[in-house]
Amino acid sequence: MNEHTHLNELKGRAATPCGRNKEELKGADGCNHTHEELQEEETWSNARIIRVCMMMTPLLTLLYEGCRPQDARWALLGDTTTPSWDWTMLLVVFAYTAMQAALYYLPFGQVEHRGKDEDGQVLRYNINGLHAFVISSALLVGMWSGGVFQACRITGRIYSLVCACYVFSFLIATLLYLHSFKKQPFSQTGPVLRGFALGKDINHRVFGVDMKHFFMVRIGFMGWGMVITCYLLAEIEKDGLVSLPMLLVVTFQLLYIVEFLLDEASVLPTKEFTQDGIGFLMIQGEYIYIPFYSSTAAFFLLQQGVQISLPSVFLICLLYGVGFAIYYISNGQKNCFRKDPSDPAFAGLRTILSPSGQNLLVSGWFGWVRHPNYLGDIMMTWAWTLPCGFSSVLPYIPAILCTNMLRERANEIEEACEEKHGEAWKEYCRRVPYQLLPNIY
To answer: How many helices (H) does the chain have, and how many strands (E)?
Structure first.
């Protein structure tokens, strides 16, 4: 589980349909569609597509405006010190994207081969995101230390940067949409709006680079790391030192990002990768939702300046540490069991045989609650929000959304698993009655 699940849930995508068959059904247009395609049609009306395409950036701007000091003039009402557009920011977005494209070809890291394209060629993925992130971070901090740029020049133009990301993601999505016509004639592409917003190709590649992998890892997660690093550096410029709350937020989020990059290949078998197309909604999310919504707590601290007591620091660190351990260990247990259920490490764990032929793990972490990895994710999200204190509810909005999204995701997964595993899943729920919190929920 990671921030991409949060993004997909925000956009309304359904959970992984484990076990749902692929039989073709008749859609409203008279064409044959799989169950998933019909479900997507029901979820994504044209009106909803337009709303999500148009509202993500304005809502982020409103959220950030509310995080600023009360005596600050709103940029939306004409504050010239916080411009809404700056061509330099568009150049920054282009330069960062181009740099990540170059770093993709670094001769470091592993190479994963997963699936095949339409021509039967095995798909190749360069798993070197961590190396690229270290180089990018070192370059950012080095340029800042050398006086090449000031972080406040970035954070002071944050709305210009967000708008530049929106424009650039629109341009990229347009180019990818036009590029997809090389494989599929225009007459066979279906509705233009849906194709542009949701994507037509699952494995869209340009110069051998998988676009979905590139945007998820290099733009989304690594961009998130760059943004919170800028917030930290801007606080040093403003106050001469890093406050303890800012240090906690940035450290917690960087640990989360690095953990993801250490296990970068884990995104390859996910639903986002294997079933969803890559269109404007996904690209916009990687440029805006992941880097900026996820870093709301750090932006709030940069604007407001909060102090917390040492006992509070201890409790917050404990919450994050326990959450990280639950998240990391339970995910590891789940992934290892999926790869090799006969591994001697699982010899002492109880299972239930499903009619599908799979074994359901009903002890260990998944005998405690049915979604321990989601519980760990929620605990970490709240841990990096609590340093903001309680003077405003705004920095808590992403954490509240995340908690609700994961709860809904768990419900959807369970519905699909009950359909697949039948009585075996019901027996599992009887033995492990709680979804997320033992003895509570």
So the answer is: 18, 8
